[in-house]
Amino acid sequence: MTSKGDRTRKEIVQRALALANELGLEAVSLGVLAAGLKLSKSGLFAHFQSKEALQLEVVHAAIDRFSQSVVKPALAAPRGEPRVRAIFAAFLAWIEAGDRKAGCFFMALSHEYDDRPGAVRDLLVSSLQDWRETLAKAARLAKDEKHFGPQVDPAQFAYEMAGIAMAYQQAFKLLRDAHARERADAAFEALVMRSRPAATTAVRTKPMSSRTRKAPRQAGRAGASR
Question: How many domains does the chain have?
Answer without folding.
Answer: 1
